[in-house]
Design a protein that fits this description.
The chain is α/β, with parallel strands linked by helices. The protein is built from 11 helices and 10 strands.
Length: 289
């Protein structure tokens, strides 16, 4: 019989938030794969748990190499517990490769539900929570970051991001540029910890605040794009939307069709706007002006 892979959520701040089942699974696991074995040791001490299983490190640097070893242990019938530093494994943390390998081999995969920075930030943000998208971490390079943001500039669902504190000011500045200065957002810092802070306001104001320097674990929640009707969209906006889709990898014909569908405009109108912009760019400003 094959074993079982258990994905265990761990506290994102306050250790008292640990689910009761976590202690039982830590004590029963035959193999514990931990993102940081030192943090695991501190967690088990805080919970008063004595582990008897083999503990191995499983982090971004060795995830690909260690996955086959853990998958073999599951094939041999072991109960493998996967924990990361905080929150649920595989959500912007190591784990996806092992889950995929277990599923491919027909191994049972289950989870110990636990705290989630994504859902906690969303709940306290004060922004719509009925529909949302989790975008994880943005690219570190400025150009790639802006390109990724442009892909979701027209997304009407609430957006949730993780960010490192030393990049927060650059990220909020880029969001202000791409999403607009008045788009509402919330920066959630050190959730459930002693110095928890939730700062809400327009992106422009949050960017100015972050420019002074911010510390701690950061989750950003951004309001979705407002609904617009065909009468609100000029040729420049249509061209911008087509270019966003092209930068994301769509062919121009597909991008034009998609923009027409989302705006309710005829494809010919979107096409004409793109062609006019292309001709204007080719000819440049008129001479003598």
């Amino acid at each position: 019989m094959t074993g079982t892979l258990v994905l265990a959520g761990t506290p994102i701040g306050d250790v008292a938030d640990a689910p009761p089942r976590l202690a039982a699974e830590l004590a029963a696991a035959e193999v514990i794969a931990a993102e940081d074995t030192r943090r695991l040791r501190r967690l088990t001490q805080a919970l008063g748990v004595h582990t008897t299983g083999r503990v191995v490190s499983y982090f971004e640097g060795n995830e690909a190499a260690r996955t086959p070893e853990l998958a073999d242990a599951l094939d041999a019938g072991a109960r493998v517990l996967l924990v990361t530093d905080a929150g649920m494994p595989s959500v912007s943390d190591p784990g996806y490769r092992l889950v995929a390998a277990a599923v491919e081999r027909g191994v049972k995969v289950t989870a110990v539900p636990g705290p989630s920075a994504v859902l906690t930030a969303l709940a306290v943000s004060g922004l719509p929570v009925d529909r949302f998208c989790f975008e994880g971490f943005l690219p570190r390079k400025g150009g790639e970051r802006r390109s990724r943001l442009r892909e979701v500039a027209d997304e009407r669902r609430t957006l949730v991001y993780f960010e490192a504190p030393h990049r927060l000011d650059d990220t909020l500045a880029a969001m202000t540029e791409v999403f607009g200065a008045d788009r509402r957002a919330a920066v959630c810092r050190e959730l459930t910890k002693t110095y928890e802070e939730v700062r809400r306001g327009p992106l422009e104001d949050l960017a100015a605040w972050a420019a002074e320097g911010v510390r701690g674990e950061i989750t950003i929640v951004v309001e979705g794009a407002p609904q617009t009707g065909p009468q609100d969209l000029g040729p420049d906006e249509l061209v911008r939307r087509v270019h966003v889709r092209e930068e994301a990898g769509e062919r121009r014909k597909e991008a034009i069709a998609a923009v027409a569908a989302e705006t309710g405009l005829p494809k010919r109108e979107v096409f004409d706007a793109v062609v006019a912009a292309k001709n204007a760019a080719r000819t440049g400003p008129a001479e003598g002006k």
